[in-house]
Design brief:
The protein has 462 residues and is α/β, with parallel strands linked by helices. Helix content is 41%, strand content 15%. The protein is built from 16 helices and 15 strands. The strands form three sheets. The chain has a seven-stranded mixed β-sheet, sandwiched between helices. A four-stranded mixed β-sheet has the order 1-2-3-13. Strands 11-12-15-14 form a four-stranded antiparallel β-sheet, covered by helices on one side. The structure holds pyridoxal-5'-phosphate (PLP).
């Protein structure tokens, strides 16, 4: 496609060739053809450089994933060693490999619930897709074939495959894709700042939305509902931290109707919330868990689904009757990804990364709250090393900006111009730095974000 809007890039530049050849995921393609790409060239620790030598502080850990930062030699060595020893092996048909076994053992020992079995994939999306399939397989195998629906939440993000994209509760991931599929239902988002009514307290709000969840279950018939899925803190939906008591109430309802809790720890897992898992921060008792991203600090793709032994047992009998357990990927248990995952988790322990993240997280949250007084900021929220500020046209009334003005996108661009990578989710600016960030670097991050915010205020005022 010719790019009439964009002719300032020399034809042989990476930018021009990107514009010619790539279909970019989760990108406003129209805007992309107007402004062109940013080419990332190299990275070290919490810093990243583009192909023009511009340095950025990485405030988003890539896509919420580079927990140990960039250029970690130990992980390069773990990958190299495994590539030289056994570059590939499968888990199909009873084959196995040492890194997958060791990593499964390690994960079972780390998670805060009684996990029995670990299934490996490559992405958060395939993990959540697998979750749905395992719920269906389990309920068929134990003779409750009608118990199949999955309840997810509006604004939740669980991936983009046909099934996981259906769990995602954000319109751009459904529109024109004919999603969601009918087995997926959506309930309220625990977004007190925007969705509380009138003078509703946090407690009233929780009672109302959990009441709505129960109503949905009763309307649909509890015998038709297999599971509820949630990210402990919603990430891509706007960094939504639920009010106190929310998960306790949700779990009371789920237990009452024998509905499983799928805990999507793809962002929250491995230290992000100040504890090892979001489940611990929010008193969630998962039935099953999805892991990805920080499981390898994004050095290689890997995901894991952890299920209790009682779910696994019926799979054994059923697969014997059918002839195979017919689910798995070529790269399930890829030995190089597993070796990197294992070394990554060992390094997190050896270097007390979760404790570091918790300590720096407190400093980070205090710095984040300082934005509360800024004229553009309606809400600041977060936990651990995860946070967000929400921009509003009017602090008193919480009136948002007209979406067409693109205020969040403008702020994100000013952040980049000032040398910090942050992500606009609508008019909410998300922060999710690598867990290894120091307090000085947190100061640098917020100083740059503040400059960008003030520049945005001048622009908005004009
Ligand atoms: C909570 C959560 N679940 C699932 C996913 C999907 O992961 P992936 O992009 O690896 O498919 C994401 C991605 O951001 C996520 O944040």
């Amino acid at each position: 496609m010719a790019d009439p809007l964009h002719n300032e890039f020399p034809p042989e530049s990476l930018e021009a060739r990107d514009l010619q050849h790539l279909l970019h995921p989760t990108t406003n393609l129209k805007q992309h053809h107007e402004v062109g790409p940013v080419v990332h060239e190299r990275a070290e620790g919490v810093y990243l450089w583009d192909n023009h030598g511009k340095k950025y502080l990485e405030g988003m850990a890539g896509l919420w994933c580079t927990a140990l930062g960039y250029g970690e030699r130990e992980l390069v060595e773990a990958a190299t060693k495994q590539l030289e020893k056994l570059s590939y092996s499968q888990l199909f048909g009873s084959k196995t490999n040492e890194p997958s076994i060791l990593l499964a053992e390690k994960l079972k020992a780390m998670v805060p619930f009684d996990a029995g079995r670990v299934f490996f994939g490559l992405s958060g999306s395939d993990a959540n897709d697998t979750q749905i399939k395992l719920m269906w397989y389990y309920n068929n195998a134990i003779g409750r074939p009608e118990k199949k629906k999955i309840i997810s939440r509006l604004r939740g993000y669980h991936g983009v495959t046909v099934a996981s994209g259906s769990l995602t509760g954000l319109t751009p991931f459904h529109k024109h894709f004919d999603l969601p599929i009918p087995q997926v239902l959506h309930t309220d988002c625990p977004y007190y700042y925007r969705e509380a009514r009138g003078s509703e307290t946090e407690q009233d709000f929780v009672d109302r939305i959990v009441g709505n969840l129960e109503q949905l279950i009763v309307q649909e018939g509890p015998e038709t509902i297999a599971a509820f899925i949630a990210e402990p803190v919603m990430g891509a939906g706007g960094v939504i931290v639920p009010p106190p008591g929310y998960y306790r109430k949700v779990q009371e309802v789920l237990r009452k109707y024998d509905i499983f809790f799928i805990d999507d720890e793809v962002i929250c897992g491995f230290g992000r919330t100040g504890e090892a898992f979001g489940a611990q921060t929010f008193d969630i008792e998962p039935t099953t868990m999805s892991l990805a991203k920080a499981i390898t600090s994004a050095y290689l793709p890997l995901s894991a689904v952890l299920i209790p032994e009682f779910m696994y047992e019926p799979f054994v009998e059923a697969s014997g009757e059918i002839g195979t357990f017919g689910h798995g990927f070529t790269y399930s248990g890829h030995p190089v990804c597993a070796a990197v995952g294992l070394r990554n988790l060992e390094l997190m322990e050896e270097r007390s990364v979760f404790a570091h993240a918790a300590t720096v997280g407190e400093f980070f949250q205090n710095r984040l709250r300082e934005f509360a007084d800024h004229p553009l900021v309606g809400d600041t929220r977060g936990v651990g090393l995860l946070g967000a500020i929400e921009l509003v046209a009017d602090k008193e009334t919480k009136e948002p900006f007209d979406a067409d003005r693109g205020v969040g996108a403008y702020l994100m661009n000013r952040c980049e111009a000032n040398g910090v990578i942050l992500r606009a989710l609508g008019d909410t600016l998300a922060f999710c730095p690598p867990l290894i960030i120091s307090t000085d670097q947190v100061d640098e991050l917020f100083a740059k974000a503040e400059t960008a915010l003030n520049e945005t205020l001048s622009w908005v005022s004009r």
